[in-house]
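Researcher: Dear colleague, please comment on this protein.
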Amino acid sequence: MFDISFKRNRQLKILLIILLLLPFQLLGVVHISKIMYLPDFINMMTIIISVVIIVLLRFKPIKIKKYAGAYYYWGILSIIIWLCEIIYSYILYSHYGQSLLSCVKASYSYCVIIVIYVLSYFLFRINDVHFLKNCIKAFGMLSSLFSIIQVILYRYSIVVFDMADEAVRNGRLRYGIASNFLPLAFFITFSDFVEKRKRKDFFIIVLEAIALLYAFQTRSLILYMVLTILIVLLVFAKKIRTKLVLMFSLAIISVYAIGTDLTNPLVFEFSNDYGIEARFYAIIFYLKQFLEKPLFGMGSIRESSGNAYLKGLLHGSSGVFSGKLFRDDVGVIGLLNERGIIGIAWYLLLLLILFKECRIIAKSNISERIWVISIYIYILISSFNLLYVENSRLVVCCFICSLIHHYYLNTNKTLKYSNNINII
């Protein structure tokens, strides 16, 4: 019996690693970008592998509900909204040449949510509480190291790791493998270092910080991570003087972050491109569209539909930034534009589920509370332009939800055990 259990455990771990490698972009080793759009590859492969696993393991609704908890209902709601959005988008844009299939292709990322069911099952069955967390730490370290190596090699016109053409801007390489996953890996390592003070964790933190500043060079990502660290330190700081210093630092950085991303892009511009100014105009453009269709939003528009009118609706049709505006760049505003009030309610429901689970973990599981609080705060503040339910980040969001739910279940189990002992 032990041998069978051990063998099954090992198989589940291998499958989990394969699933994790997808949002980590296969660590850049395979040049996927030369074949197809990377987020599409990640989403499609995640969906296909998840469906195959669900079929082979003969998942039943009652089993999924047991492992996934509240995410079971959130997933069902997501699929219902997706189906409604397909019909709604087809009604809006069919006479402009957008087919029903194009509507499906434009919004299929909703289906990625089924991976939560698979991950929840795997984590429940694997007899290793920290397995996924340790894998994320290891892959975060490797992706940072490979990103730094590639940026150095690019100076000599050498390309070893997968690189999209848009990675080079104004002759400068801004390159990062699995940039959407790095904050989670960083906060987990940071939490472990605070709790255990291991040199290995310290070196990983330094490596990831170098990767962020030298290779990734994503302003908003760095700003949100710094803000998150300051807020977490403020929460856990005990001395009043320390709290005041942190509050002052937080206020300065917050004003700077808001100024660069939302209010006055011209004053705070500090790079040669005009990405910040474009984002400012994108916010105005997409908010105007939302006000025209507030309940369901503008719906799903397939960029490759070939219709100039549809392209104008999606990326702007007039002014300096005509054809250069993107929903992905404005986070929650982009969600509001695409899915309306319904979409925002759907997102808020996810945040509510996460908040409930994070609160329980933070109160009861001291060793895990720092990274749990950190990632929740990060998801909240990054919603301005790095929304984690957006097409290219939804799979990362699913891993975050699954990991937090896993610790939530283990914390609840410990609490019940403790309560039983107290009763006895």
